[in-house]
Design brief:
Elements lengths: L16 H21 L9 H4 L1 E9 L10 H16 L7 E5 L3 E7 L4 H9 L4 E11 L31 E6 L2 E2 L13 H10 L14 H9 L5 H6 L10 E6 L5 E6 L4 E2 L3 E9 L4 E8 L1 H15 L8 E5 L2 E4 L11 E8 L1 H13 L5 E10 L2 H29 L1 H27 L6 H30 L4 H33 L3 H31 L3 H4 L9 H4 L26
Parallel strand pairs: 7-13
Antiparallel strand pairs: 1-3, 1-15, 2-3, 4-8, 4-9, 4-12, 5-6, 5-14, 7-8, 10-11, 11-14, 12-13
Helix pairs in contact: 1-11, 1-14, 3-9, 10-11, 10-12, 11-12, 11-14, 12-13, 12-14, 13-14
Length: 586
């Protein structure tokens, strides 16, 4: 007997379904374990389901700009605030105008509300002011002696700063960090160092004084108590850009400090980009800044003048909404329009400062008109009604599958269960990973996906039944039906995914939640059909219940009207020698 020829696997080959089932089983276990390890066992809900915070901002015209509150500037402000919120990793936040001079910001529950309010509500212009004097936040003597300034770092969670003393601003080239050209101010001398300095010089080093400030401003600086919230709320808020002012901020120890600042040298509109990045060469987080052409000239001139002075007058304060958020020191002029700020940042503090610098230049000034807590009562009722409707629809689909496909309905139901597990675990992990929030439209997208997934099963089952109708046994019918069903499923899912992708790109807000969920579940449909439905069908086709066409299997040849099995006709054999040959009938 001749051995079978090697080559392409015949169409009816069964393959190795166990491998595919092992892959999807490992994926399910890994996702479930990751969900419990990260302690994110439920999807993050949107503001319409879980409640949240609504911040109403009222726009105000700057002095000398009576027509600043217009549609163009309001839309620009909405875009900047929305990017600022997204910079915090918040998803499903809504930023929209209301009326002529109000902006509504809806932030879902589960977001760091305090951090979001600090950045969303900080809507005044961003300024770079030279530091003239620095002192602790409590009231001091009428003429305080300035000392080296620790960093006024952005407020981290809990009102503490994680930055190291005095950040350093340095030049950078095309967004890449280069060796620091700027150094921190000299530390407070030790007794031994002071003695050596006295040996070299008969007179001590001069103490910088804020000689450019008026006497009244010096008295105001000395009496300023930044430890009181009511005082901080008004310190430097109404200062004109062309005049010196006082301001409050947090130092590296998380304590309130105060600054005496000169007139504005560079404003936030001169910053074209800023971001917190990790410098792999020095293994530290830094903030990279890029200035406009006009801003680069201003910054170079300012840093050049500051570099010739002593601490703390060689520092510039970054002031947002009247509060000092950082005060890096310089030792040489920074040219080229690129700079970096370094000094013990954590990832969070670097990204916070980058967000403030990048999105701080608003065309208008805003004030918090109201802050209210939104309850999820209405959304909860709608969610309950939607889930009930979805459950009824799913039950009707299951009843139809059982009545029409009988035993095949078991495969469809198990496949739907696998798809549900994958969808749930991924949504739960994405809530913490990328800030994905499940809202009502997203729930609607998940319900619609049930129909898409069930349709894929139906396509495959009908192809198998067609092969059985042609008279083939079940095992080859399963394999022959797969190539044609696979093409149909891929084309159908591609169209659905393309529609979801376009919808996600061209829309905003809650509609994006629908598109994202629809696209995700469409991809999972392909995974489930290829790695679970097809392999499990291959295995069950080997069982007697399905292979023999049991009436309740859904593959009964008689019920499907199958043709008789295909058989080859036998050739007539030649008669042996001497055997009589019977004449054929006419």
């Amino acid at each position: 007997m001749a051995a079978p020829k090697k080559g392409r696997r015949p169409t009816g080959a069964q393959g190795r379904p166990g491998r595919a089932l092992a892959v999807i089983l490992i994926a399910m276990v890994a996702l479930t374990a990751g969900m419990f390890i990260s302690k994110q066992t439920t999807p993050r809900l949107g503001i319409d389901l879980a409640g949240g915070t609504t911040i109403t901002l009222k726009a105000k015209s700057e002095p000398g700009k009576p027509n600043a509150v217009n549609e163009t500037n309001m839309n620009t402000a909405v875009g900047i605030i929305e990017r600022r919120v997204n910079g915090l990793g918040v998803s499903e936040a809504e930023v929209q105008t209301q009326g002529r001079d109000h902006i509504i910001v809806n932030i879902p529950k589960g977001t760091n509300e305090k951090q979001a309010r600090e950045q969303v509500g900080t809507t005044a212009q961003l300024y770079f002011r030279p530091v003239m004097a620095y002192a602790p936040g409590a009231p001091a003597a009428p003429e305080p002696t300035p000392s080296a300034s620790p960093s006024g770092k952005p407020k981290a969670e809990g009102g503490k700063s994680t930055a190291s003393p005095t950040p350093k601003a340095s030049a950078s080239s095309q967004g890449r960090a280069v060796p620091e050209a700027l150094k921190a101010p000299s530390p407070t001398p030790t007794p031994d160092a002071s003695k050596k300095a006295d040996d070299k010089k008969a007179t001590p080093a001069p103490t910088p004084t804020p000689d450019a400030a008026t006497g009244d401003l010096q008295k105001q600086f000395a009496a300023l108590d930044c430890t009181k919230e009511a005082v901080r709320a008004n310190a430097g808020k109404n200062a004109k850009p062309t005049e010196p002012t006082v301001a409050c901020g947090l130092n590296n120890a998380g304590q309130w400090s105060k600054w005496l600042l000169g007139p504005v040298e560079v404003d936030g509109q001169d910053v074209s980009d800023a971001k917190g990045v990790l410098d792999p060469q020095r293994a530290m987080w830094i903030v990279q800044l890029k200035f406009t052409d006009k801003g680069a000239d201003k910054f170079a001139k300012t840093t050049g003048a500051l570099a010739a002075k002593q601490s703390p007058q060689n520092q510039f304060a970054i002031v947002l909404d009247g509060e000092v958020i950082s005060d890096p020191s310089v030792s040489t002029a920074i040219t080229g329009g690129n700079a970096e700020i370094s000094g013990g940042f954590t990832q969070q503090s670097a990204q916070d400062l980058g967000n403030m610098l990048s999105y701080g230049a608003l065309p208008l000034s805003f004030q918090e008109d109201s802050v209210t807590t939104v309850t999820a009562a209405l959304g909860g009722e709608q969610l309950k009604a939607g889930l009930i409707a979805g459950a009824i629809g799913l039950a009707l689909v299951v009843i139809y599958l059982v009545a029409y496909y009988r035993g095949l309905a078991f495969i469809a139901i198990i496949s739907l269960l696998v798809s549900a597990i994958l969808t749930y675990t991924i949504m739960a992990l994405l809530g913490k990973g990328i800030g994905f929030a499940l809202n009502l439209p997203a729930v609607c997208g998940a319900i619609v996906a049930i129909g898409i997934t069930a349709d894929s099963f139906i396509v495959y089952f009908e192809r198998i039944r067609d092969e059985v109708r042609e008279g083939r046994t079940l095992r080859p019918a399963v394999e022959r039906a797969w190539p044609r069903a696979r093409r149909t499923i891929l084309v159908s899912d591609f169209v659905s995914f393309l529609a979801a992708a376009v919808l996600f790109i061209v829309t905003v807000g809650k509609v994006q939640g629908f598109a994202f969920t629809l696209g995700l579940t469409t991809l999972l449909d392909v995974v489930v059909v290829f790695l679970f439905t097809k392999p499990i069908m291959t295995l069950l086709a080997r069982t007697k219940f399905f292979a023999d066409g049991h009436p309740w299997s859904g593959l009964d040849p008689k019920r499907l009207g199958a043709k008789p099995p295909l058989r080859r006709s036998r050739r007539a054999t030649a008669p042996a020698a001497g055997s009589p040959v019977e004449p054929k009938e006419a």
